Amino acid sequence: MANRRKWLVVLLGAALPVCAATSGSISGIVKSADGTPQMGALVEVFAMGTLQPIVAFTGQAGSFQVPSVTPGNYRLKVTAASFLPSLVENVVIRSGGRAVINVTLNTLAEAIRFLPPRQLSDQDQDDWKWLLRSASNRPILRFDEDNGLILATSAKCEHQESHSVSGKVAFVAGAQADGFGSAPDYGTSFDVRQALFSADMLSFDGKVGNGNGQPAGVIRTAYRHQFATGDTPTIAVTLRHTAPPGSIAANALSSVAFTFSNTTNVGGLIDLTYGSEVQGVQFIRRISGVRPFATAGLHLGKNMVLEYRYATAEPASAFDRALDNGNDDQVVSTPRMSVVGYAPALERDRHQEISVSRKHGDTKVQAALFFDRVSNLALTGSGDVSSIASDVIPDVSSDTFTFNGGNLETRGFRLVAEHTFSRELTALLDYAFGGAVTAPDWNSAGSWADLREALRVEDAHSVTAKLNGLIPESGTRWAASYKLTSSNAVTPVDLFNASPGHADPYFSFVIRQPIPGGSFIPGHVEAVLNVRNLLAQGYRPFLSPDGRTLYLVQSARAVRGGLAFTF
Length: 567
What we know:
Blueprint: H1 2-18, E1 24-32, E2 42-47, E3 54-57, E4 63-69, E5 72-79, E6 86-93, E7 98-100, E8 103-105, H2 108-111, H3 122-127, E9 130-133, E10 139-144, E11 148-154, E12 165-173, E13 186-196, E14 200-211, E15 214-225, E16 232-242, E17 253-266, E18 270-283, E19 285-301, E20 304-311, H4 318-324, E21 337-340, E22 343-346, E23 348-360, E24 363-375, E25 378-382, E26 392-395, E27 400-404, E28 408-422, E29 425-438, H5 448-454, E30 456-471, E31 476-485, E32 506-514, E33 524-532, E34 540-543, E35 549-553, E36 558-566
Parallel strand pairs: 1-7, 1-8, 6-11
Antiparallel strand pairs: 1-4, 2-3, 2-5, 5-6, 9-10, 10-11, 12-13, 12-36, 13-14, 14-15, 15-16, 16-17, 17-18, 18-19, 19-20, 20-23, 21-22, 23-24, 24-28, 25-27, 25-35, 26-27, 28-29, 29-30, 30-31, 31-32, 32-33, 33-36, 34-35
């Protein structure tokens, strides 16, 4: 391990001189609220901590261009006759990058709507003399001694909707089929977000349902704040409850997790994401764990990134994400539990990865090396084990179970190539080589310990082909993938793959079809169908201690569908 870290330090040290920061640019269009381009508007670009701006003026079409901008964090001030000045904050320029900032100027009557006064915080009193707020309760009009009235926004929030509250809800039917702890047959997933002021976000999301005749689900609440420096810390609390069939309360799985994470940029060259999750699990007895994680991306140019990733939890499968109706940045890791001799065991993971990604036109490629170590590996099995009282935890709703597969330690590499043919079609190929847990042919009954001893870690290959498409006439979005693994593997090769090449084993597809609602149904409605391992491949049979035939499998066949609402 020490040698790997030394080589990583040497590699990063060698790359830094090569990737010396190159200038970027800022451009955009200035318009009025009715869309009229504003010629002659003054655009001032301020670097963080400086008072001397870079000055530009808009042309006849309202466009402006600020070339040769040093990588860093900037703010833009745009002024024009008869309009309020507009301030755009948190404009981040990376090495060789280009930021496109389109600004809408407003008159005083267009910009504000008076609301009852609120109690000002210390930060408000220090930064601004007074402010007026929009209906969504974000500071839009500020006054200070230097700039007077300023309409303030954030470049990082331009993509957000103007509504203060946004939400997504999905009603789902169909078992998750991932062993103990899987989502129930029928459930509801939701994601509600409330914008607070100009740089804060409060979110409440989760999945609830009725699992094995008892209430089950996961609920998460998170608070995110964005600083002017670009740092974006997030604090989250996650509660989970799942119970096996017929279990007493003492055998129900309950967990609470506290998560802190932060995203920042260093010198316009390095993107950092880091944090940790402290998890407490109650299942037969109390178990705790700490899950740190980090990602560092070094920009070697406009279209190349060298990245290091450290993870302590398996990424959510494509099948799970398709119907959660949430966002990738809010994926909640599931405590992977198993039992050995009636004693609970929590899966503990450690994944390290070094990758290089490059974009050339419509093609993206990635090459990665990874090192994985897993203890108490939770394997998925298929078959009825509800009457078996040892070493397996069933999920009756999907006829699957979880079995402790021992330990896994491996290393390998991954190659990914993705090409966008058009807005309607994208194709991807993923190849991985590394260790996977394999199950031998099993012809006689034995103990659970015998089965665990028979499992082996062997080198294996996997090849994944993915297609993503859009049918413009109907608005139908679809994705299909096929992932083939060599040998008799019961775990995927490259278990922690979080790249665009990540896919469920064997043939899977998802379809999202918009449903016209007119004025009767507010927001956006989609019908969703998701099928995993349609051909039921990769099932490895074995005989349980009582002589019945059961199976170990990378991913059990499952079908889920439902309605997703966005408002």
